[in-house]
UniProtKB/TrEMBL annotation:
One of its GO terms (molecular function) is phosphatase activity. This is Sugar phosphatase. It comes from the Bacteria. One of its GO terms (cellular component) is cytoplasm.
Length: 293
């Protein structure tokens, strides 16, 4: 099996001298949706002390302001990072402006699937949230209605939506995440099933290039900036960095920890990681067991 060229590191301090700025994922890297990981805030403080600007790029299906407020509730100081870009913010601007042809065809009446915490997607939008698919022009899926729902719970709903040819907006391509130590599905799992059935899905967020473009515009670092992405998902963070041509530090102790048989803070067996990278067709620059300095 061909070996993927990458470096195993114990912390960012070993390589950060090669970079001008960091693009940081949140869920699975900085926090678990409930609390920050023990090493993440110290690492962000160290980056600030080293003069390395940090931008956040998250597949959170809500406004960026909501993401920032939630981080502050967790005790993550706003002064530790610069631009904060959520995939929900990207979708929000597209939905508000409707310059893109796909968005331009959407009607006003939307059927929503997802928790109350994602209602910020409708702030100042010219839309009407309806209660049934029969009333809807399109669908917005930001996640399961309840964290413990399986995708199968939505099967009948998806078939009905397909029969009405309803387009679906999904501002979170993640299929699953670990929240408070428990693995739960994300919006991407529901939208992915709809797409499998033949439904029309518009995705926003990583790994799409538009997510990185939106983040880089907010960062305003210039075209020659040496950027390092830090993320834990091969299908979103790593795939997105690969597509954007950016170096990535892959946090192996995140969503793939069980698959790699290496708990957070420990480095996996290299042969096992090589095999996973080979199977998924991804490339990483560095592998680290945790986001730490």
């Amino acid at each position: 099996m061909p070996q993927t060229p990458y470096q195993m590191i114990n912390g960012l301090s070993e390589v950060i001298g090669n970079y001008d700025a960091v693009i940081l994922d949140l869920w699975g890297v900085v926090h678990d949706g409930v609390t920050p990981y023990p090493n993440s805030v110290p690492a962000m403080k160290a980056l600030k002390e080293a003069g390395i600007p940090v931008a956040l790029l998250s597949n959170a299906p809500r406004r960026s302001s909501v993401v920032v407020a939630r981080m502050e509730e967790m005790g993550i100081d706003r002064g530790l990072y610069g631009p904060a870009v959520a995939s929900g913010e990207i979708a929000y601007h597209q939905l508000r402006d409707r310059v893109d042809a796909w968005y331009g065809k959407l009607g006003r009446k939307v059927f929503r699937v997802g928790p109350v915490r994602d209602h910020s997607m409708f702030e100042d939008q010219d839309v009407e949230v309806v209660d049934t698919l029969d009333e809807a022009d399109w669908m917005l899926v930001t996640g399961p209605d309840d964290d413990h729902d399986p995708v199968s719970k939505y099967e009948d709903m998806l078939h009905l939506a397909l029969s009405r040819d309803l387009p679906m907006l999904c501002p979170n391509p993640d299929r699953e995440v670990i929240r408070g130590g428990e693995r739960i599905i994300c919006a991407g799992a529901i939208a992915g099933r709809y797409e499998e059935l033949g439904g029309d899905v518009r995705w926003e967020g990583k790994p799409l290039a538009s997510a990185y473009d939106f983040c880089l515009q907010a960062f305003d670092m210039g075209p020659d900036a040496r950027l390092l992405v830090v993320g834990d998902s091969l299908s979103t963070d790593v795939a997105g960095a690969n597509a954007a041509g950016l170096d990535i530090a892959f946090v192996t102790g995140g969503i793939h920890a069980e698959e790699l048989d290496a708990p957070r803070g420990t480095l996996p067996d290299k042969a096992r990681l090589d095999q996973l990278l080979e199977v998924t067709g991804r490339h990483v620059t560095y592998a680290m067991g945790d986001f730490c300095w």
